[in-house]
Amino acid sequence: MAERLSPEQYSATLIDHFERPRNAGAMPDADAEAFVTNPVCGDSLRIFLRFAEGRVIAASFLSSGCPASIATSSAATEMVTGRTLDEAEAFTRDDYAAAVDGLPTSKVHCSVLAASAVRQAVAAWRAKQTA
């Protein structure tokens, strides 16, 4: 049974990102990607990033999970695009939660997935540059 989207539980911004996710889909020419999953709830996120001149120039995602997970993944792609690698890495779970106007306490783990995936993708890119 699908989770019911309730304005009492979720913000209008979160509902909008869930119903109309931005940058959804794989990026075949990504410079880096990362896959993270929450072993407790099963939500997962694969993020794809493309870089140029020290900035994220494109981001996309594939996500499986609840509305909050999909919405924070969508918001993450918008937030990191145009940012330097340091700026993208610096975003916290609280930043991603704020981008969707907050998360219920039981859904904070969704913003952790976004933060972790972005950090891992940037770290993978950095490692390729020094190899």
Give me the secondary-structure topology.
Blueprint: H1 12-19, E1 32-37, E2 44-52, E3 55-64, H2 67-80, H3 85-90, H4 93-99, H5 108-130
Antiparallel strand pairs: 1-2, 2-3
Helix pairs in contact: 1-2, 2-5, 4-5
Give a description of the structure.
A hairpin with a 6-residue loop joins strand 1 (32-37) and strand 2 (44-52). This protein has a three-stranded antiparallel β-sheet with strand order 1-2-3, with helices on one face. It is 44% helix and 19% strand. The protein is globular and about 45 Å long. The longest helix is centred in the C-terminal third of the chain and has 23 residues, at 108-130. The protein is an alpha+beta fold. It has a single domain, classed as Sufe protein. Chain: A. It has five helices and three strands; from the N terminus they run H-E-E-E-H-H-H-H.
Backbone structural class: alpha+beta
Alpha-carbon distance between the two ends = 47 Å
Strand content: 15-25%
Give me the Rg, rounded. Answer: 14 Å
* CATH architecture descriptor: Alpha-Beta Complex
Secondary-structure element order, as H and E? HEEEHHHH
Sheet with the most strands, sense and barrel status: 3 strands, antiparallel
Distinctive features:
Sufe protein. Chain: A, 3 strands, 3-stranded antiparallel beta sheet, 131 residues, 44% helix, 5 helices, alpha+beta, single chain
Provide a compact summary of the structure:
With 131 residues, the chain is α+β, with helices and mostly antiparallel strands.
